[in-house]
Q: What sequence folds into this?
């Protein structure tokens, strides 16, 4: 295959090369292998622009089988005023044996798809096998990916979409219907939570949206937003009621995840009650009763990026070489 075919993969090429079933399985294999090195991500505040402080995030990871990869992400809070996304990113993948650059991939699409796939992977182990109704809280980019990914591991025959803007919720529901899911707008968040088997949250909220008192026994919560200590998508009663709390990384959950940090600060939860991380969940599984309330808290980790990037260029290379 010519080198030019895999030098840069844009968002469309990344999406085409990362179908949900293959991506979910690739993440599970990487997490079970336990041979990936992933140092803590570097968080650099840049010089203020437009009255706000942009951030550079650097997330490296490497293994002999997957390669050497680094994700570079910039977060510029003032960008919406310029008509631009707040977050931009690139992923660079190199050969582990030689250091030869293999590909540069669109970081936004890679991140969105691996995030949704990680949530679906956790749900494979934590949600009830008979889960059929999913509530999507949020209307951003991930709201169009998370239900599709969850539908790979559970027979989701109904999706409810709730957002602060009913118009955006309708747009999200329309997009999901186009992708083959039966989706409707939820006007009452409390009523929708009471109907859902799986509640997936992907918002930028700083105030609790989902209340622990609303949850019925057997619900699984997938918490993707609240990636800073000041943010939260749930109140502390969610964690007080939970029978099993899992996270993608223990360090991330206790230093970055606002839902967990604020529940601990309120005295409703203790870090010792975290059952384990996603790698342990993939290796050992989890026992749950049908009445258990389970929580998966995601903040993102470099192992997921590396596994997704490797799968992406492997599949892209195969597709490009196939007439």
A:
């Amino acid at each position: 295959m010519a080198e030019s075919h895999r030098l840069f993969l844009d968002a469309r090429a990344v999406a085409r090369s990362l179908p949900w079933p293959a991506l979910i399985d690739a993440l599970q294999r990487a997490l079970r292998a336990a041979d990936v090195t992933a140092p803590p991500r570097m968080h650099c505040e840049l010089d203020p622009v437009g009255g706000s402080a942009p951030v550079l995030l650097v997330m490296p990871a490497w293994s002999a089988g997957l390669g050497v990869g680094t994700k570079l992400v910039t977060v510029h809070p003032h960008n919406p005023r310029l008509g631009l996304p707040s977050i931009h990113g690139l992923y660079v993948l190199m050969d582990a044996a030689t250091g030869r650059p293999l590909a540069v991939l669109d970081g936004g699409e890679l991140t969105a798809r691996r995030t949704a796939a990680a949530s679906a992977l956790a749900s494979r182990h934590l949600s009830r096998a008979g889960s059929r109704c999913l509530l999507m809280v949020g209307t951003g980019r991930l709201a169009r990916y998370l239900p599709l990914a969850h539908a790979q591991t559970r027979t989701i025959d109904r999706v409810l979409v709730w957002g602060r803007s009913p118009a955006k919720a309708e747009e999200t529901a329309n997009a999901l219907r186009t992708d083959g899911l039966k989706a409707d707008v939820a006007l009452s968040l409390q009523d929708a939570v009471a109907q859902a088997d799986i509640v997936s949250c992907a918002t930028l909220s700083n105030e609790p949206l989902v209340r622990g008192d609303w949850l019925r026994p057997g619900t699984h919560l997938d918490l993707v937003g609240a990636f800073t200590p000041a943010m939260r998508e749930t109140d502390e009663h969610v964690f007080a009621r939970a029978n099993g709390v899992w996270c993608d990384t223990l360090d991330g959950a206790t230093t970055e995840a606002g839902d967990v940090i604020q529940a601990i600060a309120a005295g409703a939860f203790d870090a010792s009650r975290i059952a384990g991380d996603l790698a342990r969940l993939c290796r050992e599984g989890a026992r749950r009763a049908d009445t258990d309330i389970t929580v998966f808290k995601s903040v993102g980790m470099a192992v997921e990026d590396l596994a997704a990037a490797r799968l992406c260029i492997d599949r892209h290379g195969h597709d490009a070489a196939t007439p």
